[in-house]
UniProtKB/TrEMBL annotation:
GO terms for cellular component: SMN complex. WD repeats lie at residues 68-109, 109-150, 152-192, 274-306. SUPFAM superfamilies: WD40 repeat-like. GO terms for biological process: negative regulation of transforming growth factor beta receptor signaling pathway; spliceosomal snRNP assembly. It comes from Rhinopithecus bieti (Black snub-nosed monkey). Keywords: mRNA processing, mRNA splicing, Repeat, WD repeat. This is Serine-threonine kinase receptor-associated protein. Belongs to the WD repeat STRAP family. It holds the Pfam family WD40. GO terms for molecular function: RNA binding. PANTHER family: EUKARYOTIC TRANSLATION INITIATION FACTOR 3 SUBUNIT I (PTHR19877), SERINE-THREONINE KINASE RECEPTOR-ASSOCIATED PROTEIN (PTHR19877:SF19).
């Protein structure tokens, strides 16, 4: 029976959503953090109301938990540690910040010399990796916040994304047209990949050591250990972000045509495509359990989508139509405090 996607729409950001990340699965479920750009050059910055304000949400429902207040500029990157006890953000105010994700308190501000674009915790949450416009990777020991960070140079343009990989023994980083693999112990480059167009996003999948890279209309999969190519797909439009399902069954991608695309990872077949937002899609990520994926857009919203439409999960409840009514089955979204209602995309 045909089922139609009915997303959950999370409002709250008034500016474009440029990054999002899920925590691991904790005893309290899993969580989602999102970052937004804040005001553009032409917009007044009145009392800080347009500054980028990262938001924390319950991952399976999108329910707002809190907002991290403190940056004075666009927030380009946001992440949570594995157990969702800490958050980190990267911003245009030349700082990265580390937060207590339970209380919302700012724990430390790490000053940089230029715009910071990306942050990533080690698995034990003891170190934070940052990268940005000054082309340097920095590794901060969060137990010694007053100590100078270790620095790795070698990128020739601003760093867009930097991630720990191989159980934190290696680092993957992307600048405009290059992806580099670094050895953490020696702080030296192991290998690099060059692209003929700008790299728009990068995702690391620890299970299987897979690296997902998007550039132009391409979604490419490489070994995170050797950077050797595994496979690649071509999308019908420029793609800004892609994410691989934890079980490696599906791939989702979004980009400049406002659409979300879902592919079979093994065959490359396009399974679904639909208009996901009212503006370009900047980021997509699967949840840690693979039951849903989140998308963030220029339109200022974050949306949650079911991986398998029609399953009862989170706020979704499958309601079958009466027989012979000719209607398609539609998943409904039930809110505890109201009667069941459907949210239109």
């Amino acid at each position: 029976m045909a089922m139609r996607q009915t997303p959950l729409t999370c409002s709250g950001h008034t500016r474009p959503v440029v990054d999002l990340a899920f925590s691991g699965i904790t005893p309290y479920g899993y969580f989602l953090i999102s970052a937004c750009k804040g005001a553009g050059q032409h917009l007044p910055r009145l009392s800080g109301q347009h500054y980028g304000k990262p938001m924390l949400r319950q991952g399976d429902t999108g329910d707002w938990i809190g907002t991290f207040l403190g940056h004075k500029g666009a927030v380009w990157g946001a992440t949570l540690n594995k157990d969702a006890t800490k958050a980190a953000t990267a911003a245009a105010d030349f700082t990265a910040k580390v937060w207590d994700a339970v209380s919302g308190d700012e724990l430390m501000t790490l000053a940089h010399k230029h715009i910071v674009k990306t942050v990533d915790f080690t698995q034990d949450s003891n170190y934070l990796l940052t990268g940005g416009q000054d082309k340097l990777l920095r590794i901060y020991d969060l137990n010694k916040p007053e100590a100078e960070p270790k620095e790795i140079s070698g990128h020739t343009s601003g760093i867009k994304k930097a991630l720990w990989c191989s159980e934190d023994k290696q680092i993957l980083s992307a600048d405009d047209k290059t992806v580099r693999l670094w050895d953490h112990a020696t702080m030296t480059e192991v290998k690099s990949l060059n692209f003929n167009m700008s790299v728009s996003s990068m995702e690391y999948i620890p299970e299987g050591e897979i690296l997902v890279i998007t550039y132009g209309r391409s979604i490419a999969f490489h070994s995170a250990v050797s950077l050797d190519p595994i496979k690649s797909f071509e999308a019908p439009a420029t793609i800004n972000s892609a994410s691989l399902h934890p079980e490696k069954e599906f791939l989702v991608a979004g980009g400049e045509d406002f659409k979300l695309y879902k592919y079979d990872y093994n065959s490359g077949e396009e399974l679904e495509s639909y208009k996901g937002h009212f503006g370009p899609i900047h980021c997509v990520r699967f949840s840690p359990d693979g039951e849903l994926y989140a998308s963030g857009s220029e339109d200022g919203t974050l949306r949650l989508w079911q991986t398998v439409v029609g399953k009862t999960y989170g706020l979704w409840k499958c309601v079958l139509p009466e027989e012979d009514s000719g209607e398609l089955a539609k998943p409904k979204i039930g809110f505890p405090e109201t009667t069941e209602e459907e949210i239109e995309s």
